[in-house]
Amino acid sequence: MTVKDNIILRSFAFILLAYALLGCHPTPRDARQTAHEALENARIQLDSGNKMEAMHLFKDAERYGLLADDTLTVAYARFNIARCLGVYANEEELFSLLKAADKGFGDNYTERAKVMTFWGDYYQFHRQFDSAEVYLNLAMDYAERSGSVDAKRSALSAFHVKCFNAKEYKKSGDYLQQYFLTYPPDPSDSVLMYYYHNMGNVYYEMGNMDSTAYYYGRLEDILTREEPDCSAQNESAWYYGALANFAEMRGDFEKACEYIYWYEKHDAHYDIEQQKNNLALISHKYDAEVMQNELNEKIIHKQRVIILISGIAALVLLAFLISQIRLARKRKQEAEINAELFHFKQQNKALAQKDAEHEQIQQGYTDRLSEALDKEQQTMMLLDIYLNNSKKANHLNDLEHSVFGKKDHWKAMLAVVEEKYPGLWETLGQKYPDLDEDEKKSFILSHFKVSRQEEADYLGTTVNMVDKMRGRVRKKMDSGMKSTDFSNK
Predict the structure, then answer these.
(1) pLDDT of the residue at 18
(2) Which tens digits make up the pLDDT trace of 354-391?
(3) Closest CA to 432 of 483, 486, 469
(4) Predicted pLDDT at 140
C-alpha cells in the first residue's frame, strides 16, 4: 500500500467517524420540536390528573430540550416535574429542580415568580411559615419586576393561604383584599365566589359571625342564580359544602341538607364535566401526539442507520489502525536490522583498516631488521677477511669507516637496537640507575647472544673484564628488582 493510498484511506475513515459522531443524536431542530410537543402533551396530561404520564412526558421534554440547548423548555419541564412531585416529594430532589428552573428562566420574572410561589407553598404546607414568607416575598418581588398581574395574584393568594394556616387571620384577610383589587370592577363569578368564600372563612375563624354571614350570603346569591358562568358552576361544589357547614352551625338543618344535596350533585356534575373536558383535550391533541410518535420513530430509525454506519466506520478505522501498527512494527524492525548491519560493516571496516596499518608497521619493522641484519652479516664477513690480514688495526678502521661512515661503532650498533626496541637505552637508565655506560652496553650485547670474545672486541677490552662486567650487571639488576618490589609493598 502506497503513501497516497494510506492518506486516502485515513481521510475516508475519519470522515465516516466524524459523520457517525455528529449524527448519533437528533438534529437540534428535531430535538426542539420533540421537546415542545412533549411539553404541551405533558401539560394536557397534568390537567387531566394523569401525573404519571405527565411526569414521563415532562422528562422527555427535559431530555430533548437539553439536546436542542433550549434552556427555556428545560426550565418549564423541570418546574412542572417539581409540580408533579408535589409537596410530599423529597426535599433535596424538589429543591434541586426548583433551583434549576429558576436559573433557567433567567429574565423571565413571571415564571420565576411562579417558581418562588410554589416553593413558598411547599414550606407553608410543612408548617415552616418563616421560610415560606421568604420565598413568597421573592415571588412578589419578581411579580412586580415582571409587571404580570397573574403572577402578582398568585403570590397574594399564596400569602393569604399561608397567613390563614398560620392563624394570622387579619393579615390573611388583607392579602385577600389586595388579591381582589387586582381584578377589574366587574370580575367574573368565579373570582367573586373565591373571594366571598375565603373572606367568609377568615371572618368565621375570627369569630365575626355577622361578616361571615355577609360574605357567605353574597356567595349564596351567586350560587342560586339561574345561569352563573360555566367556571363558577364547575367550582360551586366546594362552596356548597362551606354553606352547608355554616347553615348547620346556625341550626338551619333544612338549609344545610339542601346545600349538601347540591354539593353532592355539583361534585358529581363537576367530575363528569372534568372527564368530558379531559377527553376533549386529549382528542384535540391526538394529532399532535401522533406527529410526535412519528417524529420519534424517524429519529430512532435515523439513529439506527447512523449507529450502523458508525459501526462500519469504526471497524474500517480499527482495521486501518491495526495495519498501520503492523507496518510501523515492520519498519521499526527493518530499521533496527539496517542499523545493526551498518554498525557491523563499520566495525569490519575499522578492523580491516587497523589490520592493514598493523601489517604495514610489522612489514616496516621486518624490513628494517632485515636491513640491520644484512649490514651486521656483511660487517662480520668483512671482519673475518680483515682479521686474516696482517694489517688488522688499519683494516679495522677502514672497515668501520666503510660500514658505519663517520659514526662511532657502538652508536651505529645502538641505532640498530633502537630500531627494534625504541627507548631501550633510556629505559635501562631509569630502571637501573646504578649501571654505568659499559655495563649497559654489555647487557644489550648479551641480548644478541654474542660470545665473550666478540663482546670484548666490541667494547675494546679483555674476556676477563667482560666476565667481571657481566657479574656486576646481574648483581646490580637483582638489587634493583628487590628494591622495586619492596617499594611496591
Answers:
(1) 54
(2) 878 877 876 776 666 566 656 666 666 655 555 555 45
(3) 483
(4) 92
Dist CA 356 CA 409 (whole Å): 36
CA 177/CA 169 separation, integer angstroms? 12
Helical segments of 24-148, H only: 28-47, 51-67, 71-85, 91-105, 109-125, 129-146
For the full predicted model, state whether its pTM sits above 0.85.
Answer: no
Please identify which residue in the block is written with the cell numbers 631501550: 424
Whether the Cβ atoms of residue 53 and residue 289 lie closer than 8 Å to each other: no
CA end-to-end distance (rounded Å), the chain: 74
Residues 6+ apart with CB under 8 A from 73: 32, 35, 36, 39, 61, 65
CA diameter of the chain? 190
| CA nearest neighbour of 66 among 18, 113, 104, 12 | 104
Three-state SS at 168: coil
d(CA 388, CA 392): 8
Q: Which three cell numbers stand for residue 26?
A: 437528533
Exposure string (b/e) for 391-414, b if CB count within 10 Å is 16 or more?
Answer: eeeebbeebbeebbeeeebbebbb
What integer pLDDT is reported at residue 381 of this predicted model? 62
Q: How far is CA 376 from CA 369, 372, 379, 381, 410, in A?
A: 10, 6, 5, 9, 12
| CA 450/CA 204 separation, integer angstroms | 155
Under 8 Å between Cβ of 77 and 99? no
Q: With H, G, I as helix, E, B as strand and everything else as coil, classify residue 27.
A: coil
* Predicted pLDDT of residue 110: 92
d(CA 412, CA 406): 10
The C-alpha torsion from 150 through 154 and 155 to 159, rounded to 10°, is 150
Contact 169, 206 (CB under 8 A): yes
In whole numbers, what is the pLDDT of the chain averaged over residues?
Answer: 76
Dump strand ranges (E) for 295-370: none
* 413 CA to centre of own chain: 87
Could you tell me the domains of the chain?
A: 3-296 (1.25.40.10), 428-489 (1.10.10)
At residue 314's C-alpha, the angle toward residues 308 and 319, to 5°, is 130
| Strand ranges for 243-289 from DSSP E | none
Give the Cβ contact number of residue 190 at 10 Å: 18
The count of residues in the chain is 489
Name the pLDDT band for 39 (thresholds 50, 70, 90): confident
